[in-house]
Amino acid sequence: MPHPYDPLSADEIAAAVAAIRTARPELPDPRFPLVRTDLPPKETVRGWNGTDTTARRSAFVVVYDRCASATFEARVDLASGEVTSWTHVPDVQPSIMIEEIMELEAIVKQDPDAVAALARHGVENLDLLQIDPWSTGTLPIEGVAARRRVVRASAYVREFPEDNGYARPVGNLVFVIDCDEKTVAAIQEGDPIPLPPESGNYDVRSVGALRTDLRPLEIHQPEGPSFTVSGNVIEWQRWRLHVHVDPVEGLVVSDISYLDGERRRSILHRASISEMVVPYGDTSNDFYFRNVFDAGEYNLGKTVGSLTLGCDCVGEIRYLDAVLADEGGTPQVIRNAICMHEEDYGILWKHWNFRYQADAEVRRSRRFVVSAIHTIGNYEYGFFWYFYLDGTIQFEAKLTGIVQTRAVAPGVTPEFGTLVAPQLDAPNHQHLFNMRLDFEVDGPNNTVYEVDAVGMPMGPGNPYGNAIVARKTPITNERDARRSCNPSTARTWKIVNRKATNRLGEPVGYKLVPFVGPTLLADENSDLARRAEFARHHLWVTRYDPGELHAAGDYPNQHPGAGIGEWVKQERSLVDTDVVVWHTFGTSHLPRPEDWPIMPCEYVGFSLKPAGFFDRNPSLDVPPPSKHGGDHCHATG
Ligand SMILES: [Cu+2]
Fold first, then answer.
1. Cα of 589 to ligand 1 centre, how many Å?
2. CB count, 10 Å around CB of 511?
3. 568 burial class (0-12, 13-18, 19+ CB within 10 angstroms)?
4. Are 443 and 266 in contact, with CB atoms under 8 Å apart?
5. In angstroms, what is the span from residue 253 Cα to ligand 1's centroid?
6. Which 8-state DSSP code applies to residue 577?
7. Cα separation, 106 vs 179, whole angstroms
8. Among 200, 311, 452, 496, which residue has the least CB neighbours within 10 Å?
9. Neighbouring C-beta atoms of residue 18, cutoff 10 Å
10. Strands across the sheet containing 417-421
11. Is-above-0.85 flag for pTM?
12. Nearest alpha carbon to residue 385 among 306, 494, 273
């Protein structure tokens, strides 16, 4: 049952890469930083009949010629095997490639100056050296021309191969690596700092006695789960959606609709992480340049991992594999990359009529979960989409893994971070995600309103000063569409279809309920503020353009700034048109000692709730627990 948004299969990846190699024999060793589905026109998804697709299958490929340091974009028609377009893209750097990251250790170890610098910092044994890559942004590096393709690299010392290297960062030492030449282009060095004294391991063998008083908690669904999987299309209760892993955006959900009686109603056309930035707030030699764009600079989606039953997911699980091209153009299968299951979620609704002492009416809430976990260097990012019985959609990012660290001398209290272990500073930083939400509330043409709950001043018509109104302000033009959260007014943004009304005569809508969090803290005059402009506002609205997928532009690596801040200069009208909402959310992470040596999950996200989309509570027909295999409710255990 092919869906127009299906990811490329292994055969399709191989065919696209072969077609480019054949068509471009002048490239001796093309690299393929990005191979993804060339999204067909939205109409092919809207017209999809559930069984077949007439969409032309096409691959979009970024090709990098390391010899000439040149970047090309290609499109390949997969039916004919023809390269239908081939464009040189000047003045950009494609994302940092995994193969480049894997080369770093050898480059450092083979460079006599780098080895001598390591020795000055007390590192003699290079066998267990760990080298981490850091995208370099646009800050100038003395002696290194801006046009070179470089990453910076930090060193960590391990005592054995599985040792947590972040316990012993080599302080005041950064290598600048030319990825094309495979050389050390510069060394940024300050006074040596002693290695922190403690190791930081968290595996079962390292942590000592384990607690023994946790009894089994098992989830049984003797009749199996209540959802069906057909290719990448999932149906659960009234919901239908398409899921896949994109090499840049990671877990993507699209073509989300709800069966309301006989009507299948569209809600979201496509939802994806358009970018995420992790800027560090420490001014030291080791950290002043660190601000990674995990999607555009590192291909977030390619870092997706395989999930295991009973650990990452419990219960009746169904998995989907991901197929992603490596940089040689070879398809790689990541088994069980997407996990799907149902969870009990407490009560859905309840009321006990105390006057009659009748049994309470209560229903259990249950949610369908689709998730994937990405490991980017030291951090894990779990992306979880939840679909509920009452029409709510929720996104949650779970942040875990290991915090970044910096060595400090004994007795030093860090100014821009927290000591998490002796002589080990975890610098302050932010995790700012941007979710691209291509709404389609009962059709493509929607309008966004900012809704504030406002108390009215006392006066005629409000003599006691208690009046509360919902102030609805339409966002009519892109020039007015940089918005901020306001917890004092419980601000939400409502996406409505003004041509479709509910039984009360109001336009149908869904509202975006933000999880109130920070925006970018870097100074507005900083390089980063230009490069991560999307993160300076919680919400942006644009008119749909198929070329606008990534909030910081398609090539943020070593780029001075592109993306949404440029697009909105077109000042397109946003009234009754195909709008895209871009929501920035995240956290300012001031590390705690409890985040070391591994960080308990931190949760950030947002909800999309029906707001007049339905005529009433759409979950009235959820049966009581006893009617779906659960125990009868009983007063005592
Ligand atoms: Cu963090």
1. 5
2. 18
3. buried
4. yes
5. 25
6. B
7. 12
8. 311
9. 13
10. 406-407, 424-427, 417-421
11. yes
12. 273
Q: Measure the CA–CA gap between 493 and 509, rounded to whole angstroms.
A: 10
Instruction: Give the span between the Cα atoms of 7 and 12, in whole angstroms.
Output: 9
Both tokens assigned to 358: 């009748």
Place of tokens 């109409």: 43
- Torsion sign, CA atoms 46, 48, 50, 56: negative
* Residues known to be catalytic: 294, 379
pLDDT digits (tens, 9 = 90+) for 481-533: 999 999 999 999 999 999 999 999 999 999 999 998 999 999 999 999 999 99
pLDDT digits (tens, 9 = 90+) for 318-351: 999 999 999 999 999 999 999 999 999 999 999 9
Distance 271 CA to ligand 1 centre (A): 24
Q: Output the six-digit token pair for 434.
A: 């941007």
Give me 490's structure tokens. Answer: 């419980």
Distance between Cα 431 and ligand 1 center (Å)? 6
Amino acid making up residue 135: S
Strand pairing partners for 279?
A: 291
Calpha distance 558→531 (Å, rounded): 9
For the chain, how are helix, strand and coil distributed in percent, rounded to 5?
Answer: 10, 45, 45
Q: For 117, phi and psi rounded to 5 degrees?
A: -65, -40
- Buried/exposed code over 220-244 (b: 16+ C-beta within 10 A; e: otherwise): eeeeebebeeeebbbbbbbbbbbbb
Rounded to an integer, what distance in angstroms lies between the CA atom of residue 327 and that of residue 329? 5
